[in-house]
Amino acid sequence: MKLSVLLTTLLGLNSLVSAQENNGSSDKELAIVVEYEVAECKYKTKNGDTVSVHYTGELEDGVVFDSSLPRQRPIQFTLGSGQVIKGWEEGLLDMCVGEKRKLIIPPHLAYGKRGAGGVIPPDATLIFYTELVEIENIPKDEL
Questions:
Q1: Of 44, 47, 31, which is closest to residue 125 (Cα–Cα)?
Q2: What CATH number did the domain enclosing 77 receive?
Q3: Which residues form the signal peptide (predicted)?
């Protein structure tokens, strides 16, 4: 009898875990891969910093949908102000000037069910290759 109760409990837990795993992309987390780390970093980005970032954005199939590189002009925004998608807000924190990161952003931290501009489909996971170019108003000796 005890074995039967234990087995039923374990099967119930297994079903619960499986249901959570198959609950769609909203359960996925942001993945951050540091592709280049600077040797010495005295200042890391935080909310409120105005940053300049070079980036290339891709869909999971490798199709590039946007890049600052051909324009030779990084995007500039204030971290934590809601100017960019949540995946960027989270993925670019604690970053050093010169550092390069690959961000794999699930739909709920990107454009979700609505997609964007006819280029990014609904529920798309996005991949961004980023490089922090500058943090404004930080003395050079603190970088």
A1: 31
A2: 3.10.50.40
A3: 1-19
How is residue 109 written in tokens? 């931290």
Residues spanned by the domain of 94: 25-142
Q: Which of 32, 77, 111, 127 is catalytic?
A: 111
Q: Does some domain include residue 9?
A: no
Amino acid (1-letter code) at residue 122 = P
> Among this protein's residues, is 43 annotated catalytic?
no
124 lies in some domain: yes
Based on the residue annotation, tell me whether 36 is a catalytic residue of this protein: no
Residue 20 lies in a domain: no
Residue 108 lies in a domain: yes
Does the annotation count 85 as an active-site position? Answer: yes
Structure token pair of residue 132: 């922090």
Q: What is the pTM assigned to this prediction?
A: 0.78
pLDDT digits (tens, 9 = 90+) for 47-92: 999 999 999 999 999 999 999 999 999 999 999 999 999 999 999 9
- Nearest partner of 132 among 32, 27, 12, judged by Cα: 32
Report the domain count for the chain: 1
> Pick the catalytic residue: 85, 104, 120, 135?
85
